[in-house]
Amino acid sequence: MDALSVAYFMLSFLAMFTCVCGVVGNGLVVWLLSLRVQRTPCTTYVLHLAVADLLFLLCMGSLLSLETGPGTNATASEALGLDTSSHATAYEVLRRLKYFAYTAGLSLLTAISTLRCVSVLFPLWYKQHHTQRLSSRLCAGLWGLSLLMNMLASVFCSKFRPSDQGQCYKVDLTLSALILGIFTPAMTVSSVTLFVQVRRTSQRWRRRPTRLYVVILASVLVFLVCALPLGLYWFLLYWLHLRKPVVTLYRGLSRLSSAVSSSANPVIYFLVGSRKGLGARESLGAVLRRALRDTPELEGRETPSVYTNEVGV
Fold first, then answer.
1. What residue ranges in the chain does DSSP mark as E strands?
2. What is the dihedral sign for C-alpha 99, 102, 106, 108?
3. Angstrom distance (rounded) from CA 244 to CA 248
4. What's the CA gap between 42 and 250, in Å, rounded?
5. Which bin fits 277, alpha (ψ -120 to 50), beta or left (φ > 0)?
6. 127 vs 116: CA distance, rounded Å
7. How many whole angstroms separate alpha carbon 120 and alpha carbon 197?
8. N or C end of the chain: which has fewer CB within 10 A?
9. Are strands 207-208 and 297-298 parallel, antiparallel or unpaired?
10. pLDDT for 110-150, tens place per residue?
């Protein structure tokens, strides 16, 4: 094996290991939010986000096993060169499911950030109008929108794939442009606004920011650092015409970073929600509830758990 093959294999191994850890973490979050934590509009969004991350990691791990497992005869520099029609079909289905989960996760994280920004800027309106039913409907709508976008891309690609691979690339490029051009700027602007407003209000009222806002800002930061490389993958392939070894290494790095992004949220929840001095003596459900708490903390102590407050911080 040459150096490129070794590098790609190591990146694939790290990505696979990260996927396994992320599946366990997100599965635990889904189980806790479904059975052990009281449902609120906020936990509804987090539950759907965990499901999207779980689906993404399952698809990513399956894709990596198809490329590097026995029977594919694919070298590291030719990871897409699957030698049987069944492998090729399975690969394409998993790839579409992966981008469906990626789109759903991105849209859900954007919704969480935007709605928390609204709760800070217009707390009374948010408290009166944002109900549990509305959050469930909004999540269902985002899943439906993600499914529709990826189904359209899949239909167009299946039409052009036998005759013109370049047309399929254009369809994927258009989809990536819509995703990155709409969701990412909205997420960035709302997160910056949320950070500025929460910091200003915290200093004015001498309160610590709620753990929920720390969770949201940390999740958005991890996404922007780790998950965007996967979204930029199609742009690099189509516009820059990079050499094949560079494309191969970037593919491995983008998959590893996106796996880290989808696996990081459970770690963020439990780090932010943990309380010093208790450690393993506290249940995971209690830690998760504290991380998603939507109430302010005074200096040196915590307030009781309530859903939301008038100032929204």
1. 207-208, 297-298
2. positive
3. 6
4. 35
5. left
6. 11
7. 7
8. N
9. antiparallel
10. 999 999 899 888 888 888 888 888 999 999 999 999 999 88
User: Which amino acid does the sequence have at 223?
Assistant: F
Shortest CA distance to 284 belongs to which of 38, 37, 48?
37
Q: What is the rounded distance in angstroms from the CA atom of residue 311 to the CA atom of residue 295?
A: 10
Single out the residue of 311, 313, 307 nearest to residue 43, CA to CA.
307
**Alpha carbon distances (Å) from 261 to 116, 192, 305:** 21, 19, 29
Per DSSP, the residues of 168-185 read: HHHHHHHHHHHHHHHHHH
Longest dimension (CA), the chain: 66
C-alpha span between 80 and 94 (Å, rounded): 13
- The tokens describing 200, both together, are 């200003």
d(CA 75, CA 175): 29
SS3 category, 297: strand
In contact, 146 and 165? CB cutoff 8 Å: no
Return d(Cα 18, Cα 67) in angstroms, integer.
17
Task: Give how far Cα 268 sits from Cα of 51, 255, 261, 302, Å.
Answer: 16, 20, 11, 19
Q: What's the whole-model pTM score?
A: 0.84
Cα Rg for the chain, rounded, in angstroms?
Answer: 21
Q: 269, exposed or middle or buried, with CB in 10 Å at 0-12, 13-18, 19+?
A: buried
Q: Which amino acid is at 59?
A: C
Distance of alpha carbon 12 from alpha carbon 253, whole angstroms: 9
DSSP bridge partners of 207? 298
Query: Which residues have CB under 8 Å from 152's CB, separation 6+?
Result: none
